[in-house]
Design a protein that fits this description.
Helix content is about 55%, strand content about 0%. It contains five helices and no strands. The chain starts with a helix and ends in a 6-residue tail after the last helix. By secondary structure, the chain is mainly alpha-helical. Helix 3 (about 50-70) crosses helix 5 (about 125-135) and helix 4 (about 100-110) crosses helix 5. The chain has two domains: about 1-30; about 40-135, Cytochrome c-like domain (Cytochrome Bc1 Complex, Chain D, domain 2, Orthogonal Bundle). The chain has helices spanning about 1-30, 40, 50-70, 100-110, 125-135. It binds heme C. The site of heme C (HEC) has 23 residues, from helix 3 and helix 4.
Length: about 140
Protein backbone atom coordinates (compact mmCIF):
# COMPACT_ATOMS: atom_id res chain seq x y z
CA UNK A 1 0.00 0.00 0.00
CA UNK A 2 2.72 2.49 0.95
CA UNK A 3 4.48 2.03 -2.39
CA UNK A 4 1.31 3.08 -4.24
CA UNK A 5 0.87 6.16 -2.03
CA UNK A 6 4.46 7.15 -2.69
CA UNK A 7 3.93 6.85 -6.46
CA UNK A 8 0.90 9.18 -6.22
CA UNK A 9 2.90 11.70 -4.24
CA UNK A 10 5.69 11.70 -6.78
CA UNK A 11 3.14 12.04 -9.58
CA UNK A 12 1.51 15.11 -8.00
CA UNK A 13 4.87 16.59 -7.14
CA UNK A 14 5.98 16.30 -10.78
CA UNK A 15 2.67 17.73 -11.99
CA UNK A 16 3.17 20.69 -9.67
CA UNK A 17 6.71 21.22 -10.93
CA UNK A 18 5.57 21.17 -14.55
CA UNK A 19 2.92 23.82 -13.85
CA UNK A 20 5.41 25.94 -11.96
CA UNK A 21 7.93 25.77 -14.81
CA UNK A 22 5.28 26.71 -17.36
CA UNK A 23 4.13 29.69 -15.31
CA UNK A 24 7.67 30.93 -14.80
CA UNK A 25 8.47 30.56 -18.53
CA UNK A 26 5.30 32.40 -19.60
CA UNK A 27 6.09 35.17 -17.15
CA UNK A 28 9.71 35.40 -18.25
CA UNK A 29 8.65 35.65 -21.89
CA UNK A 30 6.37 38.54 -21.09
CA UNK A 31 8.89 40.38 -18.94
CA UNK A 32 12.15 40.00 -20.81
CA UNK A 33 10.77 41.58 -23.96
CA UNK A 34 12.80 41.53 -27.11
CA UNK A 35 16.30 42.92 -26.86
CA UNK A 36 18.51 43.67 -29.85
CA UNK A 37 22.29 43.08 -29.50
CA UNK A 38 24.57 46.02 -28.58
CA UNK A 39 26.08 46.10 -32.09
CA UNK A 40 22.61 46.70 -33.58
CA UNK A 41 21.95 49.65 -31.27
CA UNK A 42 24.90 51.54 -32.72
CA UNK A 43 23.96 50.93 -36.36
CA UNK A 44 23.35 54.22 -38.17
CA UNK A 45 20.43 54.86 -40.52
CA UNK A 46 22.07 55.69 -43.89
CA UNK A 47 18.85 57.09 -45.37
CA UNK A 48 17.77 60.65 -44.51
CA UNK A 49 14.13 60.98 -43.38
CA UNK A 50 13.12 63.02 -46.43
CA UNK A 51 9.47 63.39 -47.50
CA UNK A 52 10.15 60.87 -50.25
CA UNK A 53 11.61 58.27 -47.88
CA UNK A 54 8.78 58.69 -45.35
CA UNK A 55 6.19 58.34 -48.14
CA UNK A 56 7.89 55.12 -49.33
CA UNK A 57 7.94 53.82 -45.77
CA UNK A 58 4.25 54.64 -45.32
CA UNK A 59 3.39 52.61 -48.43
CA UNK A 60 5.49 49.66 -47.23
CA UNK A 61 3.73 49.83 -43.85
CA UNK A 62 0.32 49.74 -45.54
CA UNK A 63 1.27 46.78 -47.74
CA UNK A 64 3.31 44.62 -45.36
CA UNK A 65 2.89 45.69 -41.76
CA UNK A 66 -0.62 47.16 -41.33
CA UNK A 67 -2.25 43.74 -41.11
CA UNK A 68 -0.70 43.42 -37.67
CA UNK A 69 0.63 46.85 -36.64
CA UNK A 70 -2.36 48.78 -38.03
CA UNK A 71 -2.65 51.43 -40.79
CA UNK A 72 -1.55 54.11 -38.36
CA UNK A 73 0.95 51.94 -36.52
CA UNK A 74 -1.22 51.71 -33.41
CA UNK A 75 -0.76 47.92 -33.14
CA UNK A 76 -4.43 47.22 -33.83
CA UNK A 77 -4.27 45.66 -37.30
CA UNK A 78 -6.99 43.23 -38.34
CA UNK A 79 -4.84 40.17 -37.57
CA UNK A 80 -3.61 41.47 -34.21
CA UNK A 81 -6.40 40.08 -32.02
CA UNK A 82 -5.25 36.47 -32.20
CA UNK A 83 -1.53 37.14 -31.76
CA UNK A 84 0.62 36.59 -28.69
CA UNK A 85 2.68 38.63 -28.04
CA UNK A 86 0.68 41.52 -29.51
CA UNK A 87 2.10 43.57 -32.40
CA UNK A 88 3.92 46.64 -31.12
CA UNK A 89 2.12 49.99 -31.04
CA UNK A 90 4.51 52.43 -32.76
CA UNK A 91 2.72 55.51 -31.47
CA UNK A 92 3.57 57.56 -28.41
CA UNK A 93 6.61 56.60 -26.42
CA UNK A 94 7.53 53.48 -28.39
CA UNK A 95 10.62 54.89 -30.10
CA UNK A 96 12.03 56.69 -27.07
CA UNK A 97 14.04 53.72 -25.95
CA UNK A 98 14.78 52.18 -29.33
CA UNK A 99 17.34 53.39 -31.88
CA UNK A 100 16.94 53.06 -35.65
CA UNK A 101 19.55 50.29 -35.56
CA UNK A 102 17.49 48.26 -33.10
CA UNK A 103 14.39 48.68 -35.26
CA UNK A 104 16.42 47.57 -38.26
CA UNK A 105 17.74 44.49 -36.48
CA UNK A 106 14.27 43.46 -35.29
CA UNK A 107 12.65 43.96 -38.70
CA UNK A 108 15.48 41.97 -40.29
CA UNK A 109 15.46 39.17 -37.70
CA UNK A 110 11.81 38.74 -36.66
CA UNK A 111 10.51 36.91 -33.61
CA UNK A 112 7.41 34.79 -33.00
CA UNK A 113 4.52 36.18 -35.08
CA UNK A 114 6.73 39.06 -36.28
CA UNK A 115 8.17 37.87 -39.63
CA UNK A 116 11.81 38.25 -40.70
CA UNK A 117 12.01 40.81 -43.53
CA UNK A 118 15.58 40.02 -44.51
CA UNK A 119 14.47 38.46 -47.80
CA UNK A 120 11.12 40.25 -48.23
CA UNK A 121 12.30 43.88 -48.10
CA UNK A 122 15.53 45.35 -49.45
CA UNK A 123 17.91 47.09 -47.02
CA UNK A 124 16.71 50.50 -48.26
CA UNK A 125 13.04 49.56 -47.88
CA UNK A 126 13.66 48.57 -44.25
CA UNK A 127 15.23 51.99 -43.52
CA UNK A 128 12.33 53.79 -45.29
CA UNK A 129 9.80 52.01 -43.12
CA UNK A 130 11.82 52.98 -40.02
CA UNK A 131 11.83 56.62 -41.15
CA UNK A 132 8.04 56.36 -41.36
CA UNK A 133 7.66 54.67 -37.94
CA UNK A 134 9.80 57.47 -36.46
CA UNK A 135 7.18 60.04 -37.52
CA UNK A 136 4.71 58.33 -35.15
CA UNK A 137 6.73 58.73 -31.95
CA UNK A 138 9.62 60.53 -30.29
CA UNK A 139 12.88 58.72 -30.83
CA UNK A 140 16.60 59.00 -30.01
C1 LIG B 1 2.00 38.78 -38.79
C2 LIG B 1 2.00 39.96 -37.98
C3 LIG B 1 3.09 41.00 -38.15
C4 LIG B 1 3.50 41.62 -39.33
C5 LIG B 1 2.97 41.39 -40.74
C6 LIG B 1 4.53 42.56 -38.94
N1 LIG B 1 4.76 42.50 -37.60
FE1 LIG B 1 6.11 43.60 -36.52
N2 LIG B 1 5.64 42.58 -34.84
C7 LIG B 1 4.64 41.65 -34.73
C8 LIG B 1 4.60 41.16 -33.36
C9 LIG B 1 3.64 40.12 -32.82
C10 LIG B 1 5.64 41.82 -32.67
C11 LIG B 1 6.06 41.62 -31.21
C12 LIG B 1 7.11 40.51 -31.22
C13 LIG B 1 7.73 40.22 -29.86
O1 LIG B 1 7.75 41.11 -28.99
O2 LIG B 1 8.21 39.09 -29.69
C14 LIG B 1 6.27 42.71 -33.63
C15 LIG B 1 7.34 43.53 -33.33
C16 LIG B 1 7.89 44.46 -34.20
C17 LIG B 1 8.97 45.36 -33.87
C18 LIG B 1 9.75 45.39 -32.54
C19 LIG B 1 9.17 46.41 -31.61
C20 LIG B 1 9.81 46.40 -30.23
O3 LIG B 1 9.58 47.38 -29.51
O4 LIG B 1 10.49 45.45 -29.86
C21 LIG B 1 9.20 46.14 -34.97
C22 LIG B 1 10.24 47.25 -35.11
C23 LIG B 1 8.27 45.70 -35.99
N3 LIG B 1 7.49 44.69 -35.50
C24 LIG B 1 8.18 46.25 -37.27
C25 LIG B 1 7.43 45.71 -38.29
C26 LIG B 1 7.46 46.20 -39.65
C27 LIG B 1 8.26 47.39 -40.14
C28 LIG B 1 6.63 45.39 -40.38
C29 LIG B 1 6.36 45.44 -41.88
C30 LIG B 1 7.50 45.48 -42.77
C31 LIG B 1 6.07 44.40 -39.46
N4 LIG B 1 6.57 44.65 -38.21
C32 LIG B 1 5.17 43.41 -39.83
C33 LIG B 1 3.79 41.22 -35.74
C34 LIG B 1 3.90 41.57 -37.07
Amino acid sequence: MRGVEMKYRIFYLLLGLIFLTMTVLAFAHEKTGWIAPESAKKMKNPIKPTKDSIQKGKEINEKKCALCHGDKGDGKGSASAGLNPKPTNFEGSHGESMTDGEHFWKITTGRGPMPSYEKILTTEERWHVINYINTLSKHP
